[in-house]
Amino acid sequence: MINLTSLPILSVITLLPLLGMALVLLLRGEKAMKSAALLASLLTFVVSLALWFGWQTGEAGMQFMESMPWAPELGIHYTVGVDGISMPLVLLTTLLLPLVLLFSWDTVRDKQKTYLALMLLLETAMIGVFVALDLVLFFVFFEASLIPMYFLIGRWGGPRRVYAALKFFIFTAFGSAFLLAGILALGYLYQQQTGVWSFNVLDMVGLGLPANVQTVLFFAFLLAFAIKVPLFPFHTWLPDAHVEAPTGGSVILAGILLKMGTYGFVRFSLPLFPEPSQRFAPLLAILAIVGILYGALVALAQKDVKKLVAYSSVAHLGFVTLGIFALQQESLSGAVLQMVNHGLSTGALFLLVGFLYERRHTRQLDDFGGLWKLMPIYAGFALITFMSSAGLPGLNGFVGEFTILVGAMKSNILFAVLGTLGIILAAWYLLWAFAKIFQGPNANSANASLKDLNLREVVIMVPLVILFIVIGLYPNLFLSKINPSTQLVVDQLSNPSAITQHYQAQMVSAVELVER
Amino acid sequence: MLNYSWLIFIPPLAALLLNLFFGRRYGPRVASFLGAAAVGLSFLVAVAIFFGLRALPMEERSVEVLLWDWIHIGQFRPDFALLIDPLSVLMALVVTGVGFLIHVYAVEYMKQDDEHHALDVRRYVRFFVYVNFFIIAMLILVLGNNLVMLYVGWEGVGLASYLLIGFWFHRPAARDAGNKAFIVNRIGDFGLALAIMLIFRQLMLAGAGEQAGSLAFYAIFDVIESNPAALMGIAVAASLLLLLAATGKSAQIPLWVWLPDAMEGPTPVSALIHAATMVTAGVYMVVRMSPLFELATVAGSNVMLVVAWVGGLTALMGATIALTKTDLKRILAYSTVSQLGFMFLAVGVGSYVAGMFHLTTHAFFKACLFLGAGAVMHALHGELDINKMGGLKEKMRSTYWTFLIAAAALAGFPLTAGFFSKDAVLVADFEAGQYLLYAVGLFTALLTAIYAFKMVFVVFWGQPRDRKLFEHAHEQPRLMTWPLWILAFLAIFGGLLNLPFVSSLEHWIEPIYHMGPVGAAPHPSVALEIILLTLSALTALVGIYLAYYFYVKNPGVTDRLRERMALLHRVAANGYYFDATYDAIRRGLWATARFFADVVDQGGIDAAVNGVARGAGWLGERTRRVQTGLVGSYALTMFVGLVILLAYFLVSSVLN
Question: Whole-structure pTM over 0.95, yes or no?
Answer without folding.
Answer: no
